[in-house]
Design brief:
With 612 residues, the chain is mainly alpha-helical. The protein contains 26 helices and two strands. It has helices spanning 38-42, 51-60, 82-103, 112-117, 119-123, 133-150, 158-180, 184-208, 224-236, 240-244, 246-264, 268-284, 297-302, 307-332, 336-360, 368-374, 381-403, 411-418, 420-425, 432-443, 454-459, 463-477, 501-512, 514-530, 533-564, 571-611; strands at 213-214, 219-220. Helix 8 packs antiparallel against helix 25 (533-564) and helix 17 (381-403) runs antiparallel to helix 18. The chain is elongated.
């Protein structure tokens, strides 16, 4: 942190930590002034953080860690005798040379007998002309040992200390570069390729889908809210606070976009209801780092005395989902057989989900009626989860089969309800009601009320843009964050009898991205209900290109920031996990689910429509 309190940048004060040692024999460090530059004066002498390890080990008389690469701080060893100090340096040098031997093939075991017999030969060895790093470090180490052997109680030991430090500095620098070094040439090439990808998606959006700029009128073809959200997110990546508290960005923009729709569009009561519902979603799970422990709805529901309320909300949510499916089929479907099959499978999968979570909870359902229902279901949790997977596949099949007798473009509506048992199976019971609120917010988008003012149209966020922001916000609203510690593994083995890396990884992804996956299907449903045929394919292609433009530019920005801050204190604890999450968003969500899954879905809808 610097003098004015900033802590997220890349300056010296923000990427350095002050070492403060207090104890007998440690001299104080004077400061020229006690004003605003006092902290800068303290940092006049820089040391490596790794030096703390070997220094504390020597001061406390404990073994030095096997893989230590830190040099002991000479300022803290002045209170010891020459003999004790040389013994300390020899101990650290021997430990570091062990690391050298483990990593360098050219470094071999030192022959101590030869050094003792001929110390003068080894002490005068010229190590600067040795080509290989391992042999050069061995030469330096042997020279230091030989000089140590020659030293006597009446000899100035500063040359011996210097020899030990020369070896340790050379070994530490070389090994640190090898273990945590960065190939800036390759990193720069990667940034250039990412920039080319961003340019490619921009060209694809401009000429193959929704235009970004009208060249004739020399104005933007996209809405100002979309540009504002994109620009502010890219600027925010320069701060580590975005990584730690990214949910605040998305919560802000969801409410901002809804507020703009309230000001520029009709249907104001519906928009107000959406804002109120999302405010409840916002308060359900506190996440991030600064507010993770603050009171929220989740804490209230998970209290033992409120366990009954969790199951009431779960039953109400599952009942509402089944009621929504019944209402949609009654409005759009004509095939009674396939409609009943779909609703029956959905009801069975919903009951299995409820039984699965009830069995795994200490405060499960105990009502007599429930016990009768539970007796008709599979006995163990694994079979219950497998029943949900099987029912989900059958729901997709019955939905497609029934569409030959109904409107093919209502298939996404079936998906919004048919996928819910799977998503709820891999979610926490206290989050069931959050998905119910998602349904409410989504339903209030229909029908769209057009605006007649061109000036208002520039400020009006499209429903797809709001759903895009909701997809990202829902990831955090369900309790996730950019920290690896927030990954929920409680349902990673649902229905899995043996460990399988691929299957467990897929289940973890679906459970963690359940909210974004549902909102992605909601966005496709919105587009499919308003567009048909070839226009649907073109519209989806344009939306996917725009989504990948966002993701590619975000990945470029985060990669550039990670490159610039590769020496930052938080590079492994903050930036590295965020980079892993960004890869999961890019590959898992946008590429695999959004692009491949979305195109397959649209192709199936268009194919079924042509078969009618």
């Amino acid at each position: 942190m610097n003098e004015i309190g900033n802590h997220g940048g890349n300056s010296q004060l923000e990427t350095s930590t002050v070492f403060v040692f207090i104890g007998s024999g440690i001299a104080g460090q004077p400061m020229a002034d006690h004003g605003r530059n006092a902290l800068s004066k303290l940092l006049a002498s820089n040391v490596q953080q790794s030096s703390l390890v070997s220094t504390l080990a020597l001061l406390f008389g404990v073994p030095i860690p096997k893989n230590n690469l830190g040099l002991p701080l000479p300022e803290l060893l002045g209170g010891y005798s020459d003999r004790e100090r040389l013994h300390m340096l020899q101990t650290v040098s021997a430990q570091i040379y062990g690391v050298v031997r483990a990593n360098e093939n050219n470094a071999v075991a030192v022959d101590l007998q030869q050094i003792i017999a001929n110390p003068a030969v080894y002490a005068k060895a010229d190590c600067s002309h040795i080509d290989t790093a391992g042999s050069q470090m061995q030469c330096k180490y042997e020279a230091a040992l030989a000089m140590h052997r020659q030293a006597s109680s009446n000899t100035d030991v500063s040359n011996v200390e210097r020899a030990y430090y020369e070896f340790m500095e050379l070994a530490s620098t070389h090994l640190s570069r090898a273990s945590s070094g960065y190939n800036l040439q390759l990193m720069t090439m990667g940034l250039v390729l990412m920039a080319a990808t961003v340019l490619g998606f921009a060209v694809l959006c401009q000429f193959g889908g929704t235009s970004l700029i009208h060249f004739k009128s020399r104005r933007l073809a996209v809405s100002l809210p979309a540009v504002g959200m994109w620009a502010t997110y890219l600027l925010s990546t320069l701060s580590s606070s975005l990584i730690e508290e990214e949910h605040q960005f998305w919560y802000f923009w969801v409410q901002t976009l809804l507020a703009l729709r309230l000001a520029t569009n009709g249907g104001r009561y519906r928009t107000l209801a959406q804002m109120a519902a999302f405010r409840v979603v916002r308060a359900w799970n506190q996440t991030g780092q600064f507010w993770a422990g603050e009171p929220d709805v989740r804490q209230y529901l998970n209290a033992p005395e409120n366990a009954w309320l969790v199951w009431v909300l779960a039953v109400v949510t599952l009942g509402a989902i089944n009621a929504a499916a019944w209402a949609l089929h009654r409005r759009y479907r004509r095939s009674v057989l396939w409609s009943r099959a779909f609703r029956g499978l959905l009801a069975y999968a919903s009951v299995c989900v409820l039984a699965y979570h009830s069995d795994r909870s200490h405060e499960g359902l105990t009502l007599g009626v429930w016990k009768m229902v539970r007796a008709c279901l599979p006995s163990d949790s694994a079979r219950l989860a497998q029943s949900v997977y099987f029912a989900t596949a059958l729901l997709a099949a019955t939905s497609c089969a029934g569409l030959r007798r109904a409107g093919a473009y209502v298939a996404p509506l079936d998906a919004l309800t048919g996928v819910m048992p799977l998503l709820l199976l891999l979610s926490r019971p206290h989050n069931f009601a959050v998905f119910g609120l998602f349904f409410v917010i989504c339903a209030l988008f229909f029908p769209e009320v057009p605006t007649n003012s061109q000036s208002r149209e520039l400020l009006l966020p499209s429903r797809v843009l709001v759903i895009f922001a909701l997809a990202h916000a829902s990831f955090f609203a369900l309790g996730n964050s950019n920290s690896l510690a927030s990954i929920d593994l409680s349902n990673a083995y649902a229905g899995v009898s043996r460990y399988n890396e691929a299957l467990v990884g897929v289940l973890v992804f679906i459970g963690s991205w359940a909210g974004p996956l549902w909102w992605a299907m909601a966005g496709l449903a919105l587009v499919a209900l308003e567009t048909e045929g070839v226009r649907l394919q073109l519209q989806v292609r344009a939306l996917l290109a725009a989504a990948h433009l966002w993701q590619a530019s975000t990945l470029l920005a985060i990669s550039w920031v990670a490159t610039m801050m590769r020496t930052h204190l938080f590079v492994w604890s903050v930036f590295s996990p965020r980079y892993l999450y960004q890869i999961a968003w890019s590959v898992g969500f946008y590429l695999a689910c959004g692009t491949v899954g979305g195109l397959m879905w649209v192709a199936a809808i268009v194919y079924i429509a042509h078969q009618r």
